[in-house]
Specification:
Elements (H helix, E strand, L loop, with lengths): L19 E11 L5 H12 L9 H27 L8 H21 L3 E10 L3 H10 L2 E8 L6 H16 L6 E4 L7 H16 L7 E7 L3 H5 L4 H16 L6 E6 L12 H10 L4 E5 L8 H17 L4 E5 L6 H14 L6
Parallel strand pairs: 1-2, 1-3, 3-4, 5-6, 5-7, 7-8
Length: 348
């Protein structure tokens, strides 16, 4: 909507853009480049987040800044380089998020016209949540729907994304009304999109895999004991997917990847479970990662390289990675439906 002069304001009052509803998609983030300093900045921001690593700062920060961040940017940078979109000079997560946002914008515009403004932000790195909230306020958004692209809620993902959003609102003189989209792990259209991706992948294979490994990002078991619902929501996601596919319990297994640090994390660990499956005679497996809305370092490099290697070294023969939902039409339809529900009362 165009800028207008507030009602009853004097004739010399500046015009103010108002009336829009912003919808801000949010994902984890990505380094600006895979070289040392961009990687170090990104990892420092990520690993300094108390939602991610909750050790006391006096104990964690010296270890992080003096030891971990002198070495890890090199190894992480090499991993990013192996999957980098060199044509566009960005990570696959950035490329896919842009494509998702464009399709989602088209879908929302078809429903609501110019009443909505759709954009995306990253919790770590660029574009920052703060910069996108500022842009929406400047564009006249009186309401903002914040949409973390995490199907399952976790403190280290959904909550910290919301933290960044609320912190950005704290710096606005004229705050817009705000809503956040809750976890959508049990949304029927999301489950349908997952099931269709499995059916499509299986339909292209000459032989049906012996088992589908549903790999979720891990977290310390301690977080579960403290009340984080992530593990329960992951388990329900797998159950709903299994029921939609009409499969037996033996056709599917849930695992957890990306363990970091010395303490116990949610188990079974994906990298160990795929090796165990191979040793037990499951020579042909498929892997899907429902907790990720877009393919990223954890799927393209960790699953498709490290975890695949663990499976093959243990005697596995055929490894199929089923891509994330990314910008598939069924995924965009699910995100659109979820956003519509959250916009009820604002836009109908």
């Amino acid at each position: 909507m165009s800028a207008t002069r507030p009602e009853h304001a004097p004739s010399d009052h500046p015009r103010v853009p108002r009336g829009k509803t912003g919808i801000l998609l949010a994902n984890l983030g990505t380094p600006d480049d895979y070289t040392y300093w961009p990687m170090r900045r990104y990892l420092s921001e990520f690993l300094s987040d108390k939602r991610v690593i909750d050790y006391p700062a006096w104990k964690w920060q010296p270890l992080l800044q003096l030891i971990i961040l002198t070495k890890r940017p090199f190894s992480s940078g090499a991993a990013y380089k192996s999957i980098w979109n060199h044509d566009l000079g960005e990570s696959p997560l950035m490329t896919i998020t842009k494509a998702q946002t464009e399709k989602f914008r088209e879908s929302m515009t078809a429903l609501y016209g110019d009443q909505v403004m759709v954009d995306f932000s990253m919790r770590y790195g660029n574009p920052s949540t703060k910069s996108k909230v500022r842009a929406m306020v400047e564009a006249g958004c009186e309401r903002i729907l914040f949409f973390p692209l995490y199907p399952q809620y976790a403190g280290a993902t959904t909550a910290t994304a919301n933290d960044a959003f609320f912190k950005a609102l704290m710096e606005e003189t004229w705050q817009p009304s705000a809503r956040t989209v809750p976890a959508y792990f049990d949304n029927a259209e999301y489950i349908e999109a997952l099931a269709q991706s499995v059916e499509t992948a299986y339909g292209k294979l000459g032989k049906r895999p012996d088992i589908l490994v549903v790999s979720y990002h891990g977290m310390p078991t301690r977080y579960l004991m403290q009340g984080d619902p992530y593990h329960c929501q992951c388990m329900k996601t797998t159950r709903l997917l299994k029921e939609r596919l009409g499969w037996a319990d033996t056709d599917i297994v849930s695992t957890f990847q990306s363990k970091f640090g010395p303490e116990e994390w949610l188990q079974p660990y994906t990298v160990e479970e795929v090796a165990r499956l191979a040793e037990s005679g499951k020579k042909d497996i498929a892997v899907i990662a429902p907790a990720f809305s877009a393919d990223c370092i954890e799927t393209l490099e960790e699953i498709n390289e490290e975890i695949k290697e663990s499976f093959e070294e243990a005697g596995g023969e055929s490894f199929t990675y089923i891509p994330c939902l990314n910008d598939e039409d069924a995924h965009i339809r699910a995100l659109t439906s979820i956003a519509q529900q959250s916009l009820s009362g604002w836009l109908d």
